[in-house]
Design a protein that fits this description.
Elements lengths: L2 H19 L8 H11 L6 H9 L1 H21 L4 H19 L6 H21 L6
Helix pairs in contact: 1-4, 1-6, 2-3, 4-5, 5-6
């Protein structure tokens, strides 16, 4: 197994698990996370976005969970639109960091590692043909 495939499958596993966590308040309470972010973002340029996220949480959180599970699953099985999955994951991370960093500053470091990993994968996809194993 190549280094790229190991990294891809590890990242895929983490995204699948995080996506599942969006559906279980025992693992993570995403509604509470959004409410904490909304409180932290008061009077900032992200205040409106935070309020919209809280107001839309009933459909937004399941949508994010499904996207995380699906993109992670494609990475695990090493099939499907792997480049698109990485770009979608980068977009989700950008949205998470934008909304959550004031309430949870550690997200910058944690998600920064995910960004670096995704950029590594995108670079390997660009320089090699993605081969299914």
């Amino acid at each position: 197994m190549t280094r790229q495939l190991i990294v891809q499958r590890l990242l895929g596993t983490l995204f699948v698990l995080a996506g599942i966590g969006k559906f279980s308040t025992r693992i993570e309470n995403p509604y509470q996370v959004l409410e904490q972010a909304q409180a932290a973002n008061l009077q900032s340029w992200t205040s409106t976005l935070s309020t919209q996220a809280v107001d839309s949480a009933a459909w937004l959180i399941p949508l994010i969970g499904i996207c995380m599970i699906m993109t992670g699953f494609f990475q695990l099985i090493n099939r499907g639109p792997l480049r698109l999955c990485a770009v979608v994951q980068l977009g989700m991370i950008a949205a998470f960091v934008t909304l959550l960093w004031r309430a949870f500053p550690a997200i910058i470091v944690i998600d920064g590692l995910f960004v670096a990993t995704l950029l590594y994968l995108l670079n390997t996809y660009a320089n090699t043909k993605v081969v299914s194993h």
